[in-house]
Amino acid sequence: MSSTSMKRGTARPLKNYTSFGQSVRNSLTMAYRGLLKIRRTPEQLFDVTFQPIIFTLMFTYIFGGAISGDVQSYLPIIIPGILVQTVITTSIVTGVQLREDMEKGVFDRFKSLPIARIAPLAGALLADTIRYAIATVLTLVMGYIMGYRPEGGLANVAIAALLVIVCSWAISWIFAFFGVIARTASSVQGISMIVLFPLTFLSNAFVPVETMPNWLQWFVNINPISHLVSAVRDLANHGTIGTDVAITLIGAAVIVAVFAPLTVRAYMRRT
Amino acid sequence: MVESKHRQPALDNCEWAVEARGLMKTFGDNRAVDGVDLNVRAGSIYGVLGPNGAGKTTTIRMLATLLRLDAGSARIFGYDVVKEPQIVRQLIGVTGQYASVDESLSATENLVIFSRLLGLGRAESRRKAAELLEEFGLTEAAKRPLKNFSGGMRRRLDLAASLIAQPPLIFLDEPTTGLDPRTRAQMWDTIRRLVKTGSTVLLTTQYLDEADQLADRIAVIDRGRVVAEGTVDELKASVGTSSLHLRVQHAQDTEDARQIVEQVLKVRSNVSAEAGRITAPMADADLVTDLLIALRTRGISLAEISVQKPTLDEVFLTITGQGVQESAPSESEISNRAEGVRA
């Protein structure tokens, strides 16, 4: 070992806290790790590749005739709905993978390093936005192939896509929390599905709210997923930014504000 | 003991790298660590010796801020592991029993990511990674995914990762368990070089041999307690310099042979049930001659006899009065106790 390489590490100033800047840098490095992992194991992108294609085809042709009379006029309703549903479902995988990842020895090293405690979690979640982006693009492309021509224009569709990705990232904190507290990866999947199914199906994503019984309408209307779907429809179909966008963003912020600290605390408490 | 109240004690002058008092950790009903005290002098290699499940890993994990203490206190260079964990993390490197590196990434990627996390710039991280890979003889495998790495390569990479920040204290949890003899010797060389550059090393091991080769001082730990502590020489003196292994041809002679061994060597012996093998610590290899004559006189024929370096078994036999115990007492041990009562 050369003498220059083994200069004592104690010359660095010692401090018992991590600055915000360091937390961000650490999280970005961890996100880079996540991207490298995806590049090394591209098979983990199967779900975000095939799910958008299959779901979009399936739901459009099954429900199209019944709900809107024909497939073509159902597309402006279903594509935003299916987009939200697909991308948010994808975010479950974040929790499952985090659970699997945490069982590996490398997380011990992350814990023993003087880095921000939130970084391994935030980084993993950040890297997964690439998955949401893939799912988003594929769903929209699928819609386009089937004849969906959003009237809001490309720029507004892009904003809508970004909104969906941001919200999925926020929601992935919920699944990350399950990932940290659950004992096995498969139980993460189980709990997450139970949470996700009512949220995505009891919304306006697939059918008009008016067709539902009153008590159900009440829930559907307060469901944040409904607001996200409405926001995406407004943007993509009319090019307008309505109150739903604001409500959705506030909802996303609340989820992160609640679940990020909870998750980090649970993570630190583990073993 | 240096009781430093400064925010930043001069580490080079700090006498103790580790001071632990009454460490305690319970998992369910199992008290894994039961009041462990450790003092590790800065700049030394300290060995924690014990069988599987003795509490070695748990102790290290507590000292490395990976596990909460149930009771007791621990300081690393004067910094409390509970109150100032983030400072402690800046002073330590941890190499776990199971390689704590990223399986799905390459060696270079692993080291670059750890370097970046430790605050090195992009170019600096690349240089550091290349330098460490060279140092640990991993340059050729740098780009391969870790899945194809051998156990020894993984351990070396793991140790390399612990050295990025040049921490003054390095924890090595069973650094050579499962390695072949050649790789083991290489690992030992690396550890020795580390200490030459001024690092303090706290290592755990199951092998007395390893502690003997490396450590300045040793703590023997059993069922969560430190049962012996001292320099290697002190410990060896209590164990004897070598150990006798003996097997008789006819199983019915085992008990007689054992009594002769105990009379001649004036120590307690141990019989392993499965092979009928008698083991006993030996202070003086010369006594073998007397023993062989005594056995011949009694007409006991031997199947096998050897004199070896003491194993952990003998250390335990000597220090705790019984062999290495896993969960339930083995047959040999029960017979051992019965024997003790009769004697």
TrEMBL record, chain A:
<keyword id="KW-0812">Transmembrane</keyword>
<keyword id="KW-0472">Membrane</keyword>
<feature type="transmembrane region" description="Helical">
    <location>
        <begin position="45"/>
        <end position="67"/>
    </location>
</feature>
<dbReference type="InterPro" id="IPR051784">
    <property type="entry name" value="Nod_factor_ABC_transporter"/>
</dbReference>
<feature type="transmembrane region" description="Helical">
    <location>
        <begin position="157"/>
        <end position="178"/>
    </location>
</feature>
<keyword id="KW-0813">Transport</keyword>
<dbReference type="Pfam" id="PF01061">
    <property type="entry name" value="ABC2_membrane"/>
</dbReference>
<feature type="transmembrane region" description="Helical">
    <location>
        <begin position="73"/>
        <end position="98"/>
    </location>
</feature>
<feature type="transmembrane region" description="Helical">
    <location>
        <begin position="190"/>
        <end position="209"/>
    </location>
</feature>
<feature type="transmembrane region" description="Helical">
    <location>
        <begin position="118"/>
        <end position="145"/>
    </location>
</feature>
<dbReference type="InterPro" id="IPR013525">
    <property type="entry name" value="ABC2_TM"/>
</dbReference>
<protein>
    <recommendedName>
        <fullName>Transport permease protein</fullName>
    </recommendedName>
</protein>
<keyword id="KW-1133">Transmembrane helix</keyword>
<feature type="domain" description="ABC transmembrane type-2">
    <location>
        <begin position="43"/>
        <end position="270"/>
    </location>
</feature>
<feature type="transmembrane region" description="Helical">
    <location>
        <begin position="245"/>
        <end position="268"/>
    </location>
</feature>
<dbReference type="InterPro" id="IPR000412">
    <property type="entry name" value="ABC_2_transport"/>
</dbReference>
<comment type="similarity">
    <text>Belongs to the ABC-2 integral membrane protein family.</text>
</comment>
<keyword id="KW-1003">Cell membrane</keyword>
<dbReference type="InterPro" id="IPR047817">
    <property type="entry name" value="ABC2_TM_bact-type"/>
</dbReference>
